[in-house]
């Protein structure tokens, strides 16, 4: 042993460089074979660049973060969930589109049914709410009226002075013997430590069942699980008859962060309140997430039910997406609608980092005469994403896309798309690579003249609070800022 140690001490410094360079070359060669497999070219190039620059760091990161899929056992469970969802969705009756609906809308409906299993439902009604605190109060009021069940799912959820009334309503119903079930994303909620802990204590004190979604356990189900595969949905379903969904998290508008409070940052959201058969689809999606985290199968009669309120005129279809689905459902839906548009596209997204196919769809639409408007924030809360999205402004402006910058210090966090005067999509999905690949999202396609009028009112409000970015102004931005934007765009491709 002493001789071995002596050899290592004297010869190790000589041998170590050879070992290092051998491993360096080996990792580079292996990455050329492994990384491009079943991956977008842009993402593959970004990963290869990271590995080629520093293989001993880049390759281990690739092994941890390079695969946008759940571990094998979790994938098997998700496949079982998808099969169950398709079976139960058959109990929801299909609806026919209005006679004056464009032909391409029927294709979108068929695409969505194939991607997410959910049918088109008619006779729905909806109201939109864009005031942050008012929407929380309205959701709390609906919860207080619950007679049978309350299902809650949010990416970020925490107890603070703004959300107190919502949690008080949950506890009141639980104390009355109503079944209250709560899901929240583990990382999304955990990142707000004090509010997260206060929420858990409150729920526990009142015996409310709650589970963190995609809990951060690096080694789970027998394999490494990416920590950034998150459930980004936001939903509240009361008695299977009233459903809320959209972009808003259950936390104060400044997210309880001292840095946000100092800067005056607060979030602008859009939430939708639904009644009618579509609520069963929302409830079914919640049930699949509940099973995914709790192993509890909710009784079908409490999930899929005939709505007593069928007086609405809206046609609605739910489109779930995420790493548990084979296709990138939200991206496929957006692209199909963009290519179908003949008159107008309005896209509202806080984080706009499209892949090549979406960028091409928007640019092509603008160049063939479609009026394309993009609403984004004037300032950002995430450095990398904010600068990455700015790198796309030039090509969009040159193609004729009108970009509206929602004025600071507000972060426009709402997410919706409207196409012509035919259809809109509202939900939790951003137009960025993370939402397309890594996050479980919930989008809802809505048709109907009255629905479009409400969407247009929201867009008009957002337009009044924004300023237009011109191509001339954009070309005059500092050269250093251009370099930062382009570097962040490259980094954003690493998924």
Automatic annotation (TrEMBL):
PLD phosphodiesterase domain location: 227-254, 408-435
Primary subcellular site in the record, as a coarse category: membrane
One biological process term in Gene Ontology: cardiolipin biosynthetic process
UniProt subcellular location: Cell membrane
This protein's record includes keyword Cell inner membrane: no
UniProt keyword terms in alphabetical order: Cell membrane, Lipid biosynthesis, Lipid metabolism, Membrane, Phospholipid biosynthesis, Phospholipid metabolism, Repeat, Transferase, Transmembrane, Transmembrane helix
Official protein name in the record: Cardiolipin synthase
One GO molecular-function entry: cardiolipin synthase activity
Name of the top EC class for this enzyme: transferase
Recorded GO CC terms: plasma membrane
Membrane topology, as annotated: Multi-pass membrane protein
Lineage top rank: taxon: Bacteria
Entry-linked Pfam families: PLDc_2, PLDc_N
EC number assigned by the record: 2.7.8.-
């Amino acid at each position: 042993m002493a001789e071995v140690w002596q050899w290592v001490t004297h010869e190790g410094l000589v041998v170590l460089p050879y070992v290092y360079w051998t491993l360096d070359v080996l990792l580079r060669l292996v990455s050329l074979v492994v990384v491009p497999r079943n991956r977008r070219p842009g993402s593959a190039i970004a990963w290869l660049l990271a590995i080629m620059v520093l293989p001993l760091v880049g390759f281990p990161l690739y092994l941890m973060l390079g695969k946008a899929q759940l571990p094998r056992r979790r994938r098997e469970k998700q496949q079982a969930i998808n099969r169950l969802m398709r079976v139960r969705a058959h109990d929801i009756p299909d609806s026919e589109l209005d006679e004056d609906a464009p032909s391409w809308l029927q294709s979108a409906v068929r695409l969505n049914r194939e991607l997410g299993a959910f049918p088109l439902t008619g006779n729905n009604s909806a109201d939109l709410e864009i005031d942050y605190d008012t929407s929380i109060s309205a959701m709390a009021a609906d919860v207080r009226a619950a007679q049978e069940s309350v299902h809650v799912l949010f990416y970020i959820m925490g107890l603070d002075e703004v959300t107190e009334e919502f949690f008080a309503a949950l506890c009141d119903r639980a104390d009355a013997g109503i079944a209250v079930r709560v899901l929240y994303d583990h990382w999304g909620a955990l990142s707000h430590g004090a509010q997260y802990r206060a929420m858990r204590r409150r729920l526990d004190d009142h015996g409310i069942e709650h589970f963190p979604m995609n809990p951060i356990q690096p080694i789970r189900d027998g394999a490494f699980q990416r920590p950034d595969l998150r459930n980004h949905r936001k939903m509240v379903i009361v008695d299977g008859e009233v459903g809320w969904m959209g972009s808003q998290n259950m936390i104060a508008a400044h997210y309880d962060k001292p840095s946000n409070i100092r800067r005056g940052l607060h979030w602008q959201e859009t939430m939708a309140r639904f009644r009618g058969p579509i609520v069963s689809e929302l409830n079914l999606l919640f049930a699949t997430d509940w099973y995914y985290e709790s192993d509890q199968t909710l009784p079908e009669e409490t999930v899929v039910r005939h709505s007593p309120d069928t007086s609405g005129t809206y046609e609605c279809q739910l489109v779930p997406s995420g790493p548990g689905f084979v296709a990138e459902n939200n991206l496929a839906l957006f692209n199909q609608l963009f290519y179908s548009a003949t008159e107008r596209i309005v896209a509202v997204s806080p984080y706009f980092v499209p892949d090549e196919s979406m960028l091409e769809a928007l640019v092509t639409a603008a160049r063939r005469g479609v009026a394309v408007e993009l609403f984004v924030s004037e300032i950002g809360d995430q450095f990398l994403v904010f600068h990455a999205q700015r790198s796309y402004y030039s090509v969009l402006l040159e193609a004729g896309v009108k970009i509206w910058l929602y004025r600071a210090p507000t972060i426009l966090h709402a997410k919706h798309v409207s196409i012509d005067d035919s259809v809109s999509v509202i939900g939790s999905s951003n137009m960025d690579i993370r939402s397309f690949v890594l996050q479980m999202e919930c989008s809802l396609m809505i048709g109907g003249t009255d629905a479009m009028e409400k969407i247009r009112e929201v867009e008009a409000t957002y337009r009044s609070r924004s300023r237009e970015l011109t191509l001339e102004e954009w070309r005059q931005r500092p050269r250093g800022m251009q370099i930062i934007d382009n570097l962040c765009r490259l980094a954003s491709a690493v998924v």
